[in-house]
C-alpha cells in the first residue's frame, strides 16, 4: 500500500504535469470566436502589451464598455454590471507558467512568431481552451528548431 | 470483503482524493478598470532616481516602479556618496509610503490632547485654521509668539523655513536633533577656526583610531564609510589598514576592529592627550605638520605634562602597555587617522575631549592629506548650539510667550523629558504637527497637516559629510500621491500666500517645486532661461548635481593658538553609591533615533550584535549580571535619578562591567501599529542638566541602578524565537 503511494508520488514529482483546467469557466461568457473570428479583431488590439512587455495584458473594462461596444451599438448586461460596480472582471487564466520561468511575450513577438504558434487557432474557439502542454520539453523543442539558446539562465532567472 | 482488500481500497481512495487536491486552481487575471496613464506598460518597470532622507547621509536611490507603484529601492550607482550601495533603512522607506496607518488627510483635534481623537477636515479648512491663527498673532503684534521646530534641515528647505520665520518676525526657529552634529561643528570651529564637518578619508588610511565613532552603523555617512572601510581593509594589494576602537561598549563598528580599548566613559579625551604626550616625548610626531600649524613640540609637551602614562592608564582603566603600543602604532603607521564620535561627545567634558582627539590628527600630519581628514565640501554650515537654543525656547514656552508651535518631526519622543520640553509644550495653546503618522508629537497637537512620504516629495538633499566636493542630491516624487497629503514646504508657501503682504512677497512661489528649480538653476550656474528644463530633467535623471568640481578652497589649520585642549574630569548625574552603573544610549542600527520604528522590516531586522527583534533591551556585562543575579532574558528595572524603565536584559560580554547600554528608537506612544507601545524610550532616564557641566547635550553622562524583577523578560531573539510567547513575531 505504502509502495503504491510512494510510486504515485514519485510519478507525480518526476513528471512536470500540467494539471490546471484546460478550459476553465469564465466569469463572463466571452467568445474569442466572435471577437477574433467573426469580427476579425487583431490579437494585439486587446492584448496590446504583448509586443513591449513580458505580459500580454487584457483590455481595461472601460475600453470595452465605453469605447468598443457603443460603436457597435452593443449593450451587454453582465459586462455593464461590472462597469457600474466599478469592478474589474476576474478572468481565469488559461495559460499559467510557474514563477521560476521567465517568459517574455515581447521577445517572441519580435522574433516573428505568430500568436497561434503557442495559443492555437483562438479565432475558432468558443470557450478558450489550452491545447498545448506547458512543459519544458515543449519550449525546448521549439528553441532547438529555431536555433535559439537553450541555456538554463535564458528562462530560469 | 477481506480486511486487506478493504484497507487497499481505502488507501487508494485516500490517494485519489489527495491527488485531486494536488490539482492547482487556475489563477485569476485582473485587468485594469480604467486604462493606465500614457507611459505605463504593465509588466515593464521604470526606474526613477531620487534621494533617501531616512538619515542625514542623503544617499542616492533608484526606485523601481511597476504599473505606477513603487516596488523596490536600491542605491544609485551615480551618486558619489553611496555609489550604488544602500543600507536596510534606505530600502525600508518603501514601507513609509505604504504604511497602513498613514494620516490620509488633515485632522483637527476634537478630544483631549493625547487622546487621539481627531476629525477629518479638508485642506481648505485646515489652511484657514492655520492662517487664521497666524493672522491673530500678527494682529496682536505677537509675531514672536510663533515657534517652528524642525530637524536640522539643509538646502532649499532650510532657506524656506528661515525666510518664513524671518519675514513673520519670530526668532524662535529651532533646528534640533538629538544626535545633531553641533558638537563636531563647534569643536571644529574652535580647533580649526572654520565651521562645517570633516570628511574622513578612511579608504586610503593605514591606521584608523576611532574614539566612539560608529561609522559602519550610524556615524555621519554609514553607507559611504562602510564602503570605505572595506577598501581600507581589502582594496590595496599590499596594505591591510589597521583599526583600533576606543569605547566602553562593543558596537558593530568595534566588532570589526583589530583591537578594542574599552576606556572608562568620559576618559577618552585624557587618553588621547596621553597618547599625544607619548608621541611628543618619543619624537614620533610629524615636525612639518606641527610647524605648519604653529605648534611647538617642547611647548606642547610642557602643557601635557600631567598626562603621563600612569595617570592616563588610571583614568581610563586601560593598561599602560596597551596605551603606549597604540600610540606608537598610530604615530608610526602613516597615514593614520583619528575619528571621534557621539560616545565621547555626549559626556560632560565632550567638547574638550573631541578637540583632544582632533589634536592627534595634527600631530601625525593627517590634516588635508590622502588617508587623513579634509573639510567636508557638501554641507559646510549648520547649527553649533541647537540644544542650547532648544533650552532657551523651552524657557520661553514655560514663560507663556509662545502662542503657536509648528512642529516637523517628533520631538516629544526625541527630546529627553528631563529638559521639560513635553511639559512646556502642553502649555502652548496651538500646536501644528506635520507628521505623516500619528506619532507622539502629532498626538499632542491640535492640527495635523500630513506631509508626503519621501517617495512622493520634491526636494534637494545635501549629503552630510559626503565628500570633498560640493554635491546636491535631488528628490522627486516617484509615484503620485496615494492620499490627500501635502508636502510641508508647500503648506508653508500656501500659508504665506494666504497671509499676503510681506509674507507673500518673501515667498513668491506657486509651489515648492518652483522654488527648488529656481535654487537649482542658481546652483547649476544657469543664466537666463536657456533650456533649463532640459538640464533639469537631466539632473533628475542622474539623481542630482554631482561633480561640481568645487572643492573647499582651503584645508584645515590649527587655529586655537598654542593653548591645548584640557578636558575636565567627567561628571555624571546620579550618586555613584546609589547608581553604580554608567548608562550609554546609542542609536539602534535599524531604527536609529526612532524614525525607523514604524516600519516592520526594520523592527524585524535583528540587531547585529544581540539579534533581538521588535523590542528594547539593556546590555549588561556577564560579571555585573552575575553579581545582580540577572540571567539572559530576565525582566529588569533600570533606574536613574530621572526615572525608571522595565525591559529585558541581554547578557553582553562586549561592554565594560561598570556600564550598561540601551538602544534608542523604541517606546513610542503611537506612530502606527508596528511602533505603538513597543519597547521603552531610554531618553526618559537621561538627565539633561548636570551639575558642574555646561549646557551642551550630555546624553551619556547619567548613572543608573539595575534590579532584577522577574524571569519573564519576553525577549525575542533570532536564536531563541521559542523563548517567549511572542514567538509569532519572528514570522511576520
Describe the model.
The complex is a heterodimer of chains A (157) and B (732). Chain A has helices spanning 2-14, 32-38, 43-46, 61-72, 77-84, 105-110, 116-119, 136-145, 152-155; one strand at 91-92. Chain A contains nine helices and one strand, in the order αααααβαααα. Chain A has one domain. Chain A has 157 residues and is an all-alpha fold. Chain A is globular, with a radius of gyration of 19 Å. The mean pLDDT of chain A is 86. Chain B is globular and about 80 Å long. Chain B has 732 residues and is of the alpha/beta class. The longest helix of chain B is centred in the N-terminal third of the chain and has 20 residues, at 3-22. In chain B, the strands form six sheets. In chain B, strands 6-5-17-16-15-7-8 form a seven-stranded mixed beta sheet, sandwiched between helices. A six-stranded mixed beta barrel of chain B has the order 21-25-22-24-23-26. Among the domains of chain B are: 107-178 and 383-451 and 486-508, Rossmann fold (3-Layer(aba) Sandwich), CATH 3.40.50.740; 198-375, Dimethylsulfoxide Reductase, domain 2 (3-Layer(aba) Sandwich), CATH 3.40.228; 581-731, Barwin-like endoglucanases (Beta Barrel), CATH 2.40.40. Chain B is built from 24 helices and 26 strands. The A-B interface holds A 1, 4-5, 8, 12, 19-21, 24, 49, 52-55, 57-63, 83, 86-94, 96 and B 7-8, 11-12, 15, 19, 22-36, 41-44. Strand 1 (91-92) of chain A pairs antiparallel with strand 1 of chain B.
